[in-house]
Amino acid sequence: MALKNKLPSVLARISLRAKLIVGSALATAIGLMLSLSLLLWFADADLSQAIAKQFNLLLMIFFAAIGLTITVSYVSSRHLATSLMALEVGLLNFKDNDFSVTLPVGGDKQLQALAVLFNDSAEALRKERQYIYQRELLLDKVIQSSPNVMLLLDDDKRVIYANDAARHLFNHGQRIEGIPLSELVEQVADELGAALENPKDGLFSLSAKDSEDELETWHLSRGQFLLNGQFHHLVLLKQMTRELNRQEVAVWKKVIRIISHELNNSVAPIASMVNSGRIITKDLDDPKLKLIFDTIEDRTSHLSQFIFNYARFAKLPLPKKSPVDWLKLTEQLKQHYSFFLENELPNSVVELDLIQMEQVLLNLLKNAHESASAVDKVSLSIVDSSLSDGTEGVYIEVKDEGSGMPPEVLRQALLPFYSTKQSGTGLGLPLCREIVEAHDGRISLQNRNEKGLCVRLWLPKQR
Q1: Which residue among 29, 43, 312, 393 is buried most deeply as judged by most CB within 10 Å?
Q2: Count of H helices and E strands in the chain?
Q3: What is the pLDDT of residues 403-435, one digit of tens each?
Q4: CA-to-CA distance for 148 and 444, rounded, in angstroms?
Q5: 379-386 and 340-341 beta bridge pairing
Q6: What is the mean pLDDT of the chain?
Q7: Sign, Cα dihedral of 32, 38, 44, 45
Q8: Residue 217: helix, strand or coil by DSSP?
């Protein structure tokens, strides 16, 4: 039984050429023995005795025939063995991603067809690899020249690929491959570090490289994919300031001021004429006239409110700073929107424009209540903090557990005139940004890890 089990494994280790030679020799031996047996079976007694007397000669012929068979099989199978060995070497080269090997075309038609097929496959693989290599070079060139920051991390949050923009942002142009993300976070601004540590997309501001007084808005997005059985994480940082820079905003503000001025010059006489018309026709008691005057008055009032909202963005005055009483401010906010405080209020003295800052927080709380969040999940936190450069200030965070912001909305949330609400003007968050930056502060938006949105303001204590 043991021999029976070992026989297949022993036969598998014998080469195909050896099997062919042994098979030919066995076939020859069996054929000769069968022929001799039949001859003895059908021969008469005299012929059988004659054969028996020549047994030694027959035995020599038998071995000579087997030897000749082995020699002929060995010679005739030599080209087959060479071709199979060449094919094995070529496939091993394929396994090592070497497609430069070609097989000589010769021998039988079947071997020639096999060699031609192998050579065609090698040529196709060479062309495909060259095409892929060229595409990789082009893709790497595009990625390296892109102004967007790109980081590729493994599942241990270690950098395995970074483009040129990432190297300049994190390490002054030096290589950062192999460095853990936690080490890079320690070397960058607090806002960037907080955005990188948050597992969700975010929008934040950083000081411009050429001027610390100018702020640049950045959008952070993330992606995850499975490659070679391991999860990889892609982090993209895109500078949004270029999409609508300060000069463009200034032009928009000037246009709004001109339009507001002309519309006000037209709305005011219309409203005055409506009042005059009411006085003149008060004795007529005509319901149609009353409906006409009410409609005109309602539309002029709506237009005036519309103009006021845009003019407020265009004519934002400079902050008139005074010390803030946080308790009084939060009590005033609770009269409009409910929320809960996450921590005790700070005792530090911070000078802000109370009217403007109250408007900012009312806008943020209003958005939180309109985000489909439960009312008791809207929170406000105010804590003392300091930046990595030692600048002291306060962090103000408004959080909700609503639906958050989709990536395409988050990228444009701080741009003027962009709104996803049917009745929105697109000036709520941009106005908050204008007020915060007028206080030399910064604003950032990030989707929370579980659900909802977190809007974070940083305001300096003194500037």
Answers
A1: 393
A2: 15, 12
A3: 888 877 777 777 766 666 666 666 778 888 888
A4: 19
A5: parallel
A6: 79
A7: positive
A8: strand
172 token code pair: 């002054």
Q: Which residues contact 155 (CB under 8 A, 6 or more apart)?
A: 230, 231, 232, 233
Q: In what order do the strands lie in the sheet with 230-239?
A: 159-162, 149-153, 230-239, 215-227, 202-207, 442-447, 453-460, 392-399, 379-386, 340-341
Dihedral of the alpha carbons of 102, 107, 109, 112, in degrees to the nearest 10:
0
- Read off the pLDDT band of 202 (50, 70, 90): confident
pLDDT band at 201 (very low <50, low <70, confident <90, very high): confident
In residues, how long is the chain?
463
pLDDT digit string, tens, across residues 134-184? 888 888 888 888 888 899 998 888 999 898 888 888 888 888 888 988 888
Buried b (16+ CB within 10 A) or exposed e, 211-237: eeeebbbbbbbbeeeeeeeeebbebbb
User: Would you state the structure tokens that stand for residue 183, as one six-digit string?
Assistant: 């080490």
Tokens coding 310: 């845009």
DSSP string, 370-397: TTT--GGG-EEEEEEEE-TT--EEEEEE
Residue 180 gets which letter from DSSP?
A: B
Q: Quick one: which of 326, 335, 333, 341 has its CA closest to 359? A: 333
Q: Cβ distance 300 to 271 under 8 Å? A: yes
Residue among 220, 165, 170 at smallest CA distance from 195: 220
Residue 3 clears pLDDT 60, i.e. is over it: no
Radius of gyration of the chain (CA): 43
363-412 residue pLDDT tens = 899 888 888 888 888 999 999 887 777 788 899 999 998 888 887 777 77
Cβ proximity of 396 and 369 under 8 Å: no
Q: What is the pLDDT of residue 9?
A: 62
- List Cα–Cα distances, 393 to 350, 396, 441, in angstroms: 8, 10, 9
pTM: 0.52
